[in-house]
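COMPLEX REQUEST
Ligand: MU-OXO-diiron
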Amino acid sequence: MSASDTAGVASVSRRSVVQGALAVALASTVSPIALLLVEKAHAQSTAEPLTFNFAEIAAGVDANHHVAEGYEAKPLLRWGDPLFADAPAFTPDAQTANAQKRQFGANCDFIGYVPIDGSNDRGLLCVNHEYIEAYMSFPGVKRSKASVYGIGPDKTAVEMTAIGGSIVEIVRKDGAWSYVRDSKFNRRITALDTPMRIDGPAAGHARMMTAEDATGTKCIGTLGNCAGGITPWGTWLLAEENFQLYFWTDKRNDKGEPEKGLGGGQKASWAKYGVPSSRDTAGWGLHHARFNLDKEANEVNRFGWIVEVDPLDPDFVPVKRTALGRCRHEGAENALANSGQIVVYTGDDDRNQFVYKFVSKGTYKPDDRKHNRELLSDGTLYVARYDDDFTGQWLKLAPGEGKLAGDTRFPTLAEIMIDTRIAAEVLGATPMDRPEDVEPGPGGRVIVALTNNSERLPGGEDKSNPRAPNPHGHIIEMIEDGGDVGATSFRWSIVVKAGPKTGAGADWHKDTTDNGSFSCPDNVAFDPAGRLWIATDQGRGWATLTGRADGLYALDFMGANRGRSRLFFRAPVGAEVGGPRFTADGTTLFLSVQHPSADNTKDWAPFGRDSTADDPATRWPDTDPASKMPPRASVVVITRKGGGRIAV
Ligand code: FEO
Ligand code: CA
Ligand code: CA
Ligand code: CA
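STATUS: Structure written out below.
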């Protein structure tokens, strides 16, 4: 057990071990019947999960991906793959927006699997396309702001259609997965031209109104779709994360960076949300007035939301659910409370930002999809405060609550939802080390991935963020009171402090090997047996942090092996791993390999320079040395050779 484990969680673990026959069955057998029981009991089970059974791979970095022996990892959907009968082949040097709208998008991240008729062999993949970097995507573009900003309107339109999301039907025949070109369900959602509805408390507010939409209830497109969630009624939630990167200003200093203090009457809001961003990576505002803050000050308020899409209804108008607040939403994983209310967890991925959850007003009705599809319209948003005694409170974000009482900035829920970060700070939420995926699992347990924090200064530590600075991140387990995700209080503990096992300050189970220790946890997934998997994203700092590629790790978080991590899959150089998703039978694992070759290939000795589309360190997934393709982010499908459940 990890030395950072606390007495509170240890006692819960012990209690769960003796809690009924299901736990005993799970501890002693891996029979199909037991696994089926676990699948049924997943949402609120207190059973001790199985540990993992596979041979750990060696950590390292090279041009390819690697998976544990006995498994196959194959690219299933690559950037540019044609989704429709009329979709042209991918031609990186002559790409058009019209072509890209008919093809799989760039930089896949979140993956949802929505089964068709409950099948583990036929379903819809719902995939987020988070962002695009011009110099990694278009031949001829250099790694400079001038080159990126100078790509012109046509390539800008390609960028705007390459991001958003894809719905793609996939099938498994004779053990092999493939996607269905021209399925009636296939759909692209883009930043350029997908109409969306704005719903909830902020809809129609004056700050949501723009020159193009005087009602404040309609907008075009979605941005920065990082992680997400699939609801119990089978809708797909896309979390808008780094939306600020796309908003342009001409007001710049000598270095070409946006001036400070912009925003007029919205100055405090812009400052809190990092608008405009000094990291702006796109010049969209040069060609589209709505992305130019000097011309349109309110469009930015229409991003930073959770977007709901029904993948089973190709005509569904995506809806921005403002009741879930506005921030750099990492994800939107969810579970049902004992009451039947839907609870959606989300982290705000920025330094010293917060962890949230939304609890719907209405309750889930298993046989009424139309009713369920509006549950995220109305409810209560909470933000987490982690106390030093390993308890915590969910603080209600509503007018008049706590220190929000009398605060004239927040007369109604609409202002709280538009400036959620400011309101949460007023309430006294705990600033965290970049909350990434926040995911509910068995027994009211919620795993929070805190990826790193370069801005936590010595003296600024607390029990829940104990390192300053924190380059490697850590993982917190919360246990909602009563094992009910609808609770307003919880206990918490740290599962692991990440970083190389031999490094200072890391904290792992003693049996975690050097290969199994990781840095910068990002995406979280539970498999059908309630076991925890962690995907990492070290960013450009990988060479200094660990010197190894990002990967997918199996992490025991309960029982005697708590804190033991093992490496199952590793990505090619410069990529991060995202979107882990299992089918309900546990036989298939989908992963995103995002931005291959992009992150700091200069520090990879065999290449020794930064990559571009023309000159990448790897053209993964292409392995043909004669290929001229740029590296393409892809969804990879992992199965066991000969079939069977993964890691059992
Ligand atoms: Fe898009 Fe926080 O990762
Ligand atoms: Ca992420
Ligand atoms: Ca997740
Ligand atoms: Ca990431």
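REMARKS: The mean pLDDT is 92. Residues 607 and 617 are 6 Å apart (CA to CA).
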